[in-house]
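FW: tagging you since you asked about this chain on Friday. Here's the raw sequence from the shared folder, copied in full. Didn't touch anything.
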Amino acid sequence: MDFAAYQAQAWPYDQHPDEPERALTIALLGLGGEVGTLQTNQKKTVRDGPVYLDSHALAVEDLGDILWYVSDAATWLGIDLGRVAEANLHKIADRWAKHDRPMPLAKPPVPAIPSRRDRGSLEPARIFDGTHPEPTERLPRHLEIHVANVPGTANGELPARVLPVWNGDPCGDPLGDNAYDEDGYRYHDAFHFAYLAVLGWSPVVRALLKRKRKVTPRIDDVEDGGRAIAIEEGLSAFVFEAASRAGYFENVDCVDSDVLRLCRRVTASLEVGICTEREWERAILDGFTAWRLLRREGHARLDCNLDARTITARPLTSHQLAQHADIYRTLIARKAAERASR
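HL: got it, structure written out here
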């Protein structure tokens, strides 16, 4: 596409065609903003490396926005964009000698992985229910969760599910990816248990473990209720999408600051709102370390230590896998009996 054609086709999208001064100001300010965005993304790419595997796509988008604002500003200034391009080529030809190297139009390589930084130790553990009057509604300080794949439906309409087990009992229902393409999201409970271990917070896990603080109705409603659970599930899905564009945070030691800020902003009114971006970063990275092992092996033992603020994962033994299969068969039999009794 030549510049004249682009300028003509870009013009109809100016949202203030009857306000020249306003429209030109918006175009010039928009141009500055988009240049700043392009610069910021390049800074993050150089600083954080493979966290920004989609930096090429972002650059294409940012450059396109810059081009639109340049075109719109040229239109309002009564300048033909093609003439601007031609004049600029004459100007630089007068100043610089040409080289004969080929244009680097291929997608640039991912920057080298930066040296791992010291993530440092965290402050003492967050204990949000330490003074709760009912001990059986407080979170256990240590948990061992067994997670493993279980069969899908017999006719193959649904893919394999995964079932978390705690203390010999199912910890919720079997989970699937809930996606057309298998992406391993069925193992995302690793994120919830990481939030629990590192942040001391997870309304989802509280519900699964039946540790909702019901004796204090206001806390049960706000901190452990449906809205808090929905916020946590939404954050897990959002962070997973961001991670899918960054190699699922493998071989990196940082998370996009925008992601961390959103986590804090969305949870600002909850008890976890006191947790810092650094704490969220540790929870997210540790959760994805456990998730990657789960996706690779199809099973894992998750050890959560809320006092040490750690979550570790290791494959289940053959004995543990056999126990898990027995628990799943018992669950299926119980559900079948419940359906038959209705």
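FW: The chain has a mean pLDDT of 90.
HL: agreed, and Residues 26 and 69 are 9 Å apart (CA to CA).
FW: great, closing this out.
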